[in-house]
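User: Hey, quick favor. My workstation is busy. Could you predict this chain's structure for me?
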Amino acid sequence: MNPFSTVSSQRRAFTLVELLVVIAIIGILMSLLLPAVQFARESARRTQCSNNLSQIAKAIHLHENAIRVLPTGGDMPWPFLPNYQSSSGAVFGPDKQGASWPFQILPYIEGSTIQNQRGANSAEMQMLIERSLMQMYFCPTRRRNAKQQSRVLIDYAATTPTNDLSFTDNANLQYAALFRGDAFDISTAAGQVYSGVIVRTNWNFRANNFAGGEIGASAPINLTKVRDGTSCVLMIAEKRLIPAQYDTGAWHDDRGWTDGWDPDVIRLTSAAFGPDIRSQSEQDSGLVGDIGYQFGSAHANGLNCAFADGAIKFMPYSMNRVNFNRLGHRTDNEVTDINF
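Assistant: No problem, here it is.
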C-alpha cells in the first residue's frame, strides 16, 4: 500500500440529498417542458382541423363549378337516401337531394363510389367510409373518428342565420325569441327564407305528387347570390359538443354526415357559441342554452371557420354574437369586421 495515497480507489455513491436534488431538477424541467409539448401538439391539431375545413371548402367550390350551384342542406332530418336516387341508382342533384352538403360533395373528395352505393344507409357502407376519406370530417383535437351504432359522425356544420336581425347580444336572450323568424323549423320549409350560403333543399319526395314536390322558398343558389361578399360570409364551422359524448353521440350528433336539415350538419350563427362544455349538467343549468344549435370547438380560444371564398379563419369566442350572426347572413348588407 502506498503510504502517500489518500484517495480511495472505490467510487463514492450519491447521497440521499443529492438524489433528491436531481429528482427535483428533473421534475422542474418536465413541468416546463410538458406544457410546451402539449401546446405544440394542439397547434398541430388545430392546423389539421383548419386543413380539413380548407379541403371541405374547396370541394364545395368544385361542386359549384361543376353543377353551377352550391350543395344544399337537405330537406328533413334522417333522410332515407334511396328515396333520393333514381330507379337506375343515379343520385339526385342538390335541387332534389334529401341528404345535406357533406353527402353532396363526396364526388369532389374522391367519394363518388361511396355516394353511388345503393345501400347508402347500410353498415357495410359506413365501415367502408370509416376506413377511407371520412377523417376529413373530424377535428383531431376532439376525436379522430366516431360513430353511433353504424353511423359515422361529423364535427363540422354549415351556417344558417336567424332572419330576425334585431336581437341584441344579451346573455339572457330567450331561445324562443332568438329562433323567431329563423330558418331552422324542421317541421316545414313552406314560406321560409334561407339566408345562409347553404340553403335548405326545396323539394321533398313525400310531396312529389303535390305541386311538383316543392316545399319551400329557396332554390339552390350559387356564389353570385352571396351579395355581402364571399370573403365576409361564413359557410362552414366547427360544432359545439360535450366531450363525454364524443364517442357516443347525442340528439344533435347522431346521424352524422348523411343527415338532412338537422343540427348534425346545419347550425345557427344566431345561437350562443363557445368551447365544448364539460357536461350535460352544465347545459341543463341553462347558462349556455341548447348546444345542439350552437357552434364551438375543443380549441382553447376560438373555432375554425370556412368563409364562402374558401378562406379559413380562427374566430375568437369573445366575438360579439350579433356580428357572428351577421357573418352567417349572405344578404343583410352588413360587412362585419372580421379582424375584430
